[in-house]
Amino acid sequence: MIVRAESDYSLSDILRDFKKFTSKAIIKEIFNEPESRRDWMLGYFRSAGEIDHTNFKLWQEGNHPEEINSNGFFFEKLEYIHNNPVEDLVVERPEDYFFSSARNYAGLSNPLEIVRETIQWKSYK
Questions:
Q1: d(Cα 1, Cα 35) in Å, to the nearest integer?
Q2: Can you give the residue ranges of every domain in the chain?
Q3: DSSP assignment of 86-118, as one string?
Q4: Which residue, of 2, 7, 55, 77, has the fewest CB within 10 Å?
Q5: What pTM was estimated for this model as a whole?
Q6: What is the SS3 assignment for 26?
């Protein structure tokens, strides 16, 4: 995920709140959706939560934030993220993964709303 903070909050605070919000929302949807894998998913997330005494755990501990300070580094990270489903043999092309911003960059429809970054970084010597 590539994010930018425009507030007094740290990136760690934002990621913590993002994980908390999405975990609760995803678990709620799994409970409410009559899906064939529901019991398997809930069991998996419940057993992961037993390790740190929570009901369910979707996200791994910690994170590895990196400051993006150039266009080249931004697009390197964006390409890495877009190619994860390809590397995992989930899809053949990045834009084939339905919940990826690669679809936006390829001009395809996508249920995700993204902001395409347009900032141009300056280099100082």
A1: 27
A2: 11-51, 66-125
A3: HHTTS-SSGGGSTTSTHHHHTT---SS------
A4: 7
A5: 0.67
A6: helix
